[in-house]
Amino acid sequence: MWGLPDFSILRTSLALAALLSAGFAVPPAEAAGGPVRIGGTGSSIGQMTRMAEAFVEQHPDIAVEVLPSLGSSGGIRALVDGVIDIAVAARPLKPDEAAQRLEAAPLSRTPIVMVSSYPQSQSIAADDLARIYANPGTRWPDGTPLRIILRPKSDSDSAFLRERFEGMEAALKEARSRPEVPVATTDQENIALASQVAGSLTIASLAQVISEQASVTIMPFDGMTPSLETLESGRYPFYKEMTIITREDSSEAVGSFIAFIGSERGRQVLRDTGSLPLR
């Protein structure tokens, strides 16, 4: 099951965790009207915070507020209800959502990764993943018990596991039957548990790991390290695509922010935080 133990380790800190969980506002020098409010999938919070900082540097008269995790569906509902101005989702719009006078466009593509508090990078065979989730006795090479962290059944990461790895439907069902297995309800809780639980293993996005400076080790799949280079070349096959969504009657300030994302500076922010720009 294990191989390539000499892969480099991504170990950083959760310095942004408290900031992200509380929401983050980028104030202008002198705001004109209310702030541009952004919400949606938790895996985008750190990235959108970085984007907002860069945007305000060029547009000091526009305030931007990045809200705590709403989830993809929650963010879209908040957008429809006028609670936020921009939603970021880890999936395309559903037909009933698209009928709500919304405008959606591809934003970025980021590698999906398996992360752990275990300090040594270990290559995981994709064919072994279902067995790892189903077997409560799985251990890391030094004997440390491997502790999986689950996501809610309705979460896009759970859907990804079911769709892309043979046997995961049954493996996830078995894992959910074990009361000691934690379920992280948000992306931020998921990364926090991954960094704190000894021997943890969970699914995440490279964008979240980098933008939140998460204190976790990224595990290669079948000996392939997830990165923008391996994703862009097609060698790393696991990724999620992010969608950015606005209302048809969006304000001029929202239009400016969307335009900034597609600019050279905005595209660089996406790359610096672990995503390939799609706009």
Automatic annotation (TrEMBL):
Span of the signal peptide: 1-31
Cited Pfam families: PBP_like_2
Domain spans labelled PBP: 28-264
Cited InterPro entries: PBP_domain, Phosphate_ABC_transporter
Key words of the record: Signal
Signal found in the keyword field: yes
Protein name: Solute-binding protein
UniProt organism field: Pelagibius litoralis
